[in-house]
Amino acid sequence: NAGVTQTPKFRVLKTGQSMTLLCAQDMNHEYMYWYRQDPGMGLRLIHYSVGEGTTAKGEVPDGYNVSRLKKQNFLLGLESAAPSQTSVYFCASSLETGWGGGNQPQHFGDGTRLSIL
Amino acid sequence: AQTVTQSQPEMSVQEAETVTLSCTYDTSESDYYLFWYKQPPSRQMILVIRQEAYKQQNATENRFSVNFQKAAKSFSLKISDSQLGDAAMYFCAYMEETSGSRLTFGEGTQLTVNP
User: Fold this and answer.
1) pLDDT tens by residue, B23-72
2) Which of B32, B103, B106 has its CB closest to that of A106?
3) Per the CB < 8 Å rule, is B103 touching A88?
4) CA-CA to B65 of 20 to 30 Å: which in A22, A101, B17, B85?
5) Closest CA to A32 of A5, A60, A63
């Protein structure tokens, strides 16, 4: 059982290039998330999805797009990479929660280190 | 918007001793959840402990326990009998009982365990 898998683990881009980060989970989780982690700061939510075909903006969505075409996959895209997007990106997933069931923890991938020159 | 504050960027503890990491949060909600995550140098995010706001009893998981003070909006983590493997960055996180169950993280506390 792989859990949450992020691809790639490392990537270096030049300013203006585009790329897509892939997150795959095999736990049949309904909810998926993309975070970024910068030095001296906690993880900040970029976008999230509460189900296949749905996406929503988080705290820092500018410069990113996402898609959730399949329940198990959540893609994060950078259309025109900027040095400010140099960061470690984490994907997470969790079970659907309802009233009284909101303590489902998020399961994290191992992160993608992205450097933009 | 909810905020989570960890006022101790760094902490250190001697092996086998006890250390407490602080966390405060701001919310107008009455029902929510709080978590502590551990991030070792491997970069993995590992759930340490969770607390439901509607429960008065403090959560415990082996050597890890919390002191949850709802009125003060405080959620500290106590690590007893510290081990070298406890050295990591620790993040406090808040989750609302709303659609999406999004987490808001604190800035983190880097814990060093001295032999």
Assistant:
1) 999 998 888 899 999 999 999 999 999 999 988 899 999 999 999 999 99
2) B103
3) no
4) A101
5) A5
